[in-house]
Amino acid sequence: MPENTVTPPAGRLVLLNPGPVNVHDDVRAAMTSPDQCHREPEAAALMARVREKATRLSGGDDSCTSVLLAGSGTAALEAAFSSIVPDDGRILILDNGNYGERLWRIVDVHGIPHRRMEFGWCNPIDVDAVDRALADDPGITHVGLVHHETSTGMLNPLREIGAVVARHGRQLAVDAISSLGSERLDLRDDNIDWCVGTANKCVEGLPGVSFVTAPRERLEQLEGVRAHTFYLDLYGHYISQDRLGAPLFTPALQVMTALEAALDRSLDEGVQGRGARYNALAEQVREGLAARGARFLLPPAERANSVTNVYVPEGMTYDELHDGLKAEGYVVYSVQAQLGGVFRVANMGQLDAADIEGFLAAYDRVVGKYAGRGI
User: Fold this and answer.
1) What predicted TM-score, i.e. pTM, was given to this entire model?
2) Backbone phi, then psi, for 7, in 5-degree steps?
3) Mind listing the pLDDT tens digit for each residue in 182-202?
4) What does residue 274 show for φ and ψ, rounded to 5 degrees?
């Protein structure tokens, strides 16, 4: 993407990109927590609280726990997918978008034995095909799935795939980075063995902390699995955090403090409540753009509740749309090259109906400048 020199107006910038998001004042204020040493008891207590709250948000009970990583969601994703497959195992990667491809790239770069099932961008995952693949190949020990594929805005059938994977006695590893906190997801009910989440999307925290949530028995079973990385060794982080009560390496304590504030708000609102709030905002975006003649990438039944992928209006480029909206105080997001001519409008974070109304009004002004112009 070319360098952007657009200066947004003074004041609050409305983030309609799929993370980082606009956060609550309580979350932002938590970043000003006092300086502290990460080896002191108060830091250990913070880490323990955040682990417990992240586990609850994922639907885990006392038999489950979370392992915290300093880094974006991709850090936790790489920690999980490079750590959980033994040398005599193999992981089946389900790929129907950019982030499914990312799962494949992670296991490929680490030399993890794998098989990749490509369904094509914008195509739903065929649950029956997954069932057949597991029946035909007993060497597959794990399955990797992206829950919300934000490159297209598609919500993949987590519960159905989880049931199939469990019936075959395999382990399911889920990239829930863009779904956890707003979409229905339950570690037990969905038969998830490994759940990867992050602070700065639907959890409504700030970037810099991510986590892997799993049953303790699964984490204990990693003792005999060869580590493929040093910093992102999931078992090493688990042992240090769970048995020693200390981080393996220096954590982002201020960001972790902000994550605790965000988790408190997430648990208080509840996944169902946040999902309903996001659904209402998403419908406002979709109805407003549809009334303006916009074309959407996916049919309604396949869309997640927090991202809408839309074709750029005729007569203008994505950069013109993005820059015009940013000058008005609204940030939208591009997509990968495979979907040129499409942009994303996310409604994650601390947004309300007035923010969406403002975006639609700004959209009218920006698009109106290019109406009827040939390019």
Assistant:
1) 0.95
2) -100, 115
3) 999 999 999 999 999 999 999
4) -65, -40
